[in-house]
């Protein structure tokens, strides 16, 4: 088992829309408060996206990031991790605007172009708050999330030159092999922080076999040169996250990945999800990494 388990928290993301939960952080004030609350609950890594304060739509606007990232840095020593994934509807250059300006300690990096189906969320009856939400979800039926080798190289060179470490998001087995390709080319530096992502339509499914398959493949490709973390989208978040931690990994929770805290019960905050997974893991005898310990484990310098 891992000596210390790092809990990451993905605070808002670009998957869910405001109509899906009244608790989804949207404004800079809400994102800052929710991230700080998650850190106080035990999250050592804070994975951050920005949203338009008026509509809740994903945005690459640097001015919006600047309204909450400095506040988070001032309030907590948790590792600030700004997405380079942004949204499937943004260009790679747009996705780099926030992180290249704010120079975070860590960035997420998606390891492959893929179908990224969010349109099944349209099947659930709800009152839509904003006009953009339905077209945004429907567009994922015919669109794709573009992350070519050239895109990955651009992000690695841009953010790597700034000393940024990476959360390598791998949505399928092939993404692990893509990361191994960049490791062979010495464009990435161990220890790799590999975030295996389960349960997105278009990627590997969220089930115990997938957890084992991703772990076994990563072990084969990276040996001792990586730290393994896992997130499961939706209702499998807690169960499969616990499984991964027991297998020696780390775990990510947060409202980007799952809006629920239990069957039929919306999570009221990111802190609530962090507290739940922390309680489960501590009951199993696992220790939760502090931000300082997480920095040592994944090679992020002290701020």
Care to describe what's here?
It holds the Pfam family BKACE. Keywords: Metal-binding, Transferase, Zinc. Its cofactor is Zn(2+). By secondary structure, the protein is of the alpha/beta class. The protein has one domain: Aldolase class I (TIM Barrel, Alpha-Beta Barrel). Helices cover about 40% and strands about 15% of the residues. The strands form two sheets. The protein has an eight-stranded parallel beta barrel, surrounded by eight helices. α4 (about 90-100) links the parallel β3 and β4. α7 (about 175-185) runs parallel beside α8 (about 210-220). The longest helix has 15 residues, at about 210-220. The model has no long low-confidence stretch (mean pLDDT about 95).
């Amino acid at each position: 088992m891992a000596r210390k388990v790092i809990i990451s928290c993905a605070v808002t993301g670009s998957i869910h829309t405001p109509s899906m939960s009244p608790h989804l952080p949207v404004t800079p004030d809400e994102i800052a408060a929710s991230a700080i609350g998650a850190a106080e609950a035990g999250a050592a890594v804070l994975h951050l996206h920005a949203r338009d304060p008026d509509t809740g739509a994903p945005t690459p606007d640097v001015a919006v990031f600047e309204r909450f990232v400095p506040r988070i840095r001032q309030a907590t020593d948790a590792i600030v991790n700004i997405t380079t994934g942004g949204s499937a509807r943004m260009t790679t250059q747009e996705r780099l605007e926030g992180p290249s300006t704010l120079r975070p300690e860590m960035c997420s990096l998606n390891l492959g172009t893929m179908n990224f189906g969010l349109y099944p969320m349209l099947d659930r009856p709800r009152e839509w708050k904003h006009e953009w939400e339905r077209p945004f979800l429907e567009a994922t039926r015919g669109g794709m999330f573009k992350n070519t080798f050239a895109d990955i190289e651009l992000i690695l060179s841009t953010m790597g030159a700034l000393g940024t470490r990476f959360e390598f998001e791998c949505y399928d087995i092939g993404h692990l092999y893509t990361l191994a390709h960049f490791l062979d080319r010495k464009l990435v530096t161990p220890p790799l922080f590999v975030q295996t992502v389960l349960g997105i339509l278009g990627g590997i499914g969220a089930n115990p076999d997938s957890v084992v398959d991703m772990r076994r493949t990563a072990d084969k490709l990276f040996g001792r040169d990586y730290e393994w973390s896992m997130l499961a989208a939706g209702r499998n978040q807690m169960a499969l996250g616990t499984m991964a931690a027991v297998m020696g990994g780390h775990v990510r929770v947060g409202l980007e990945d799952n809006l629920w805290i239990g069957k039929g019960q919306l999570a009221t905050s990111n802190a609530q999800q962090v507290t739940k997974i922390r309680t489960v893991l501590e009951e199993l005898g696992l220790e939760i990494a502090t931000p300082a310990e997480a920095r040592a484990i994944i090679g992020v310098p002290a701020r």
